[in-house]
């Protein structure tokens, strides 16, 4: 059997956490060769240059691709997607991969799928078939129509893909590989949070993870980007009322992200909140441990619904970014309302941890994925199967 060259596209910090265990599994598989392409916000200093984490983990990077137009508006997202097609087409021409592996629902992942499909390179897609808010909902399904192999995280997602017309023999319900990382990471406890590397605190103090604390990660909703500043303001004022030690992750590169970041900066300058620690990035394993140890997660990151269900972390999901996504009993949904957020957090604190839910996987997805990548027959010409 010839070795298949699998080109994996990593374009943001969450993206890397989703796929890190797959990267290891590809390296270890005798029938596969890893080609790693890192781009988009992974390379930007304002987002912590998360590419450094990839390097520290020892993965060889075959190409770095800069195609993010900064500004964080709907127009810059569209322009970035177009530039991504151009730049990634050149990368694929140079690397000559046998397959391109893309993750989830970002515009940068769409760029990779479009470039690969036009170049007759099979596309494998992780986390298709899910439902959520924002433009990500549309992008995810567009990538599905370009992909040749599908690795949905849940049974319902797999069923949706088949209903969308994807041939059943190309749809593999494997679970989410981010849970593989969670399964392993929790064996190594994390008691204090280092303030060096890509993470930096509001003040140079060591954060004690053995105390009860909140974890907050809230990103803009691109279809509501004009309201991004007011939306994060509600969450920040809820934190001010709760007055608990809090780890706050900076918002992502989507339209509205800059307005949210400015609101966070203004809040910190005005209130000088001693309880709040602001970070740009964490290594994927550290993020898992921080999420697992938190008394409650607040925000709209899909990690709270995905990894949070596996970890049993109490979650308060704010707004519409995850509208429609499958969730476990550990999640309480609220609107952008300070009082509602505070009430939900206090309810979750009183409840405490939840039972583990395997909706998104059992912690063994990566090996299933690489075995399929190595052996699956690919029909390059796609047709609807209805």
Poorly predicted regions: 195-204
Report the CATH C-level class of the largest domain: Alpha Beta
Enter the CATH topology name of the largest domain.
Rossmann fold
Enumerate the strands of the largest sheet in spatial order, edge to edge or round the barrel: 3-2-1-4-5-6
Mean pLDDT: 92
Q: What's the quick description here?
A:
The protein has 386 residues and is α/β, with parallel strands linked by helices. It is built from 13 helices and 14 strands.
What does it look like?
This is UDP-N-acetylglucosamine 2-epimerase. GO terms for molecular function: hydrolase activity, hydrolyzing O-glycosyl compounds. It holds the Pfam family Epimerase_2. This protein is 41% helix and 15% strand. The protein is an alpha/beta fold and 386 residues long. It folds into two domains: 4-177 and 363-375, 3-Layer(aba) Sandwich (Rossmann fold); 189-351, Rossmann fold (3-Layer(aba) Sandwich). The strands form three sheets. It has a six-stranded parallel beta sheet with strand order 3-2-1-4-5-6, with helices on both faces. Strands 11-10-9-12-13-14 form a six-stranded parallel beta sheet, sandwiched between helices. Helix 1 packs across helix 7 (178-185). It is globular, with a radius of gyration of 20 Å. Mean pLDDT is 92; it is low at 195-204.
């Amino acid at each position: 059997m010839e070795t298949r060259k699998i080109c994996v596209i990593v374009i943001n910090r969450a993206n890397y956490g989703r796929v890190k265990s797959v990267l290891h599994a590809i390296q270890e598989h005798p029938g596969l060769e890893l080609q790693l392409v890192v781009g988009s916000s992974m390379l930007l200093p304002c987002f912590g240059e998360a590419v450094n984490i990839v390097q520290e983990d020892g993965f060889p990077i075959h190409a770095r691709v800069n195609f993010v137009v900064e500004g964080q508006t709907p127009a810059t997202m569209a322009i970035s997607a177009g530039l991504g097609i151009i730049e990634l087409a050149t990368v694929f021409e140079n690397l000559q991969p046998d397959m391109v592996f893309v993750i989830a629902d970002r515009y940068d992942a769409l760029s990779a799928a479009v470039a690969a499909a036009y170049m007759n390179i099979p596309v494998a897609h992780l986390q298709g078939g899910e439902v959520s808010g924002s433009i990500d909902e549309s992008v995810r399904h567009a990538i599905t129509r370009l992909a040749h192999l599908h690795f949905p995280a849940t049974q319902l997602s797999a069923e949706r893909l088949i209903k969308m017309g994807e041939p059943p023999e190309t749809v593999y319900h494997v679970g989410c590989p981010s849970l593989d990382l969670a399964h392993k990471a929790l064996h190594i406890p994390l008691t204090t949070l280092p303030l060096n590397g890509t993470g930096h605190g509001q003040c140079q103090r060591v954060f004690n993870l053995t105390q009860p604390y909140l974890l907050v990660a809230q990103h803009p909703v691109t279809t509501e980007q004009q309201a991004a500043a007011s939306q994060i303001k509600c969450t920040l004022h809820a934190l001010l009322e709760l007055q608990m030690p809090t780890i706050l992750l900076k918002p992502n590169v989507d339209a509205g992200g800059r307005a949210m970041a400015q609101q966070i900066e203004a809040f910190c300058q005005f209130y000088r909140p001693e309880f709040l620690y602001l970070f740009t990035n964490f290594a994927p394993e550290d993020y898992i441990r921080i999420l697992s140890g938190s008394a409650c997660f607040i925000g709209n990151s899909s990690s709270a619904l995905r990894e949070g269900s596996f970890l049993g972390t109490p979650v308060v999901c704010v707004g519409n970014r995850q509208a429609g996504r499958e969730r476990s009993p550990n999640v309480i949904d609220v609107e952008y309302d300070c009082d509602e957020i505070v009430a939900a957090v206090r309810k979750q604190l009183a409840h405490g941890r939840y039972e583990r839910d395997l909706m998104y996987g059992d912690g063994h997805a990566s090996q299933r994925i690489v075995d399929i990548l190595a052996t699956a027959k690919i029909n390059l010409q796609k047709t609807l199967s209805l």
